[in-house]
Amino acid sequence: MSATQLAALARTPEPHTMLRRFLAFDSAGTGANGIAYLVASGPMGRLLGIDSGLLLALGVLLTVYAAGVGLLAARPQPPTLPVRAVIEINLAWTALSFIALAVWLSPTTAGAVYIPVQALVVAGFALLQYASLRAVQKR
């Protein structure tokens, strides 16, 4: 992705602002999923064909993770090491989502669509964060 494309997506040419925005979008999306899993694990579990206990545990994990990413996004210049950790965790989540779908989950049709779509969204955040981090480092 070129710097121009990245700047257009982030609506700013400033690399630190780009990075902070993509971290904030990640935090918001992850937090929304986490809260949804926490407050509606039963109905969502039935809809997706995933154990509600697993969704509840994931809800706790995602909510805590989203808060950490949000704190990182709030920093004027997010440090490299924690940003790299976010990128790597997002890529691991993506891989584990596909592995879980192939190996041990037996989702409904809605779950079979939702799981890969959310995994690809998370991978997209990782790629945008990586490109933004590279732009920051070039400065």
Features:
139 residues; mainly alpha; 84% helix; elongated
Structural class: mainly alpha
Q: Work out the number of β strands.
A: 0
Query: H/E series, N to C?
Result: HHHHHH
Beta-strand proportion = under 5%
Radius of gyration: 16 Å
The number of helices is 6
Count structural domains: 1
Low confidence ranges: none
Q: What general outline do the C-alpha atoms trace?
A: elongated
Mind describing the biggest β-sheet? none
Q: What is the residue-averaged pLDDT?
A: 92
* Straight-line distance between termini: 17 Å
Percent helix range: over 70%
Organism: Streptomyces xiangluensis
Transmembrane segments: 21-40, 52-73, 85-105, 111-133
Keywords: Membrane, Transmembrane, Transmembrane helix
Protein name: Integral membrane protein
Brief characterization of the structure:
The chain crosses the membrane at residues 21-40, 52-73, 85-105, 111-133. This protein is mainly alpha-helical and 139 residues long. It is built from six helices and no strands.
Detailed description of the structure:
The chain has one domain. The chain contains six helices and no strands. It has helices spanning 3-10, 15-39, 41-48, 52-73, 80-103, 109-138. The longest helix is centred in the C-terminal third of the chain and has 30 residues, at 109-138. The protein is elongated and about 50 Å long. The two termini are 17 Å apart. The mean pLDDT is 92. This is Integral membrane protein. Keywords: Membrane, Transmembrane, Transmembrane helix.
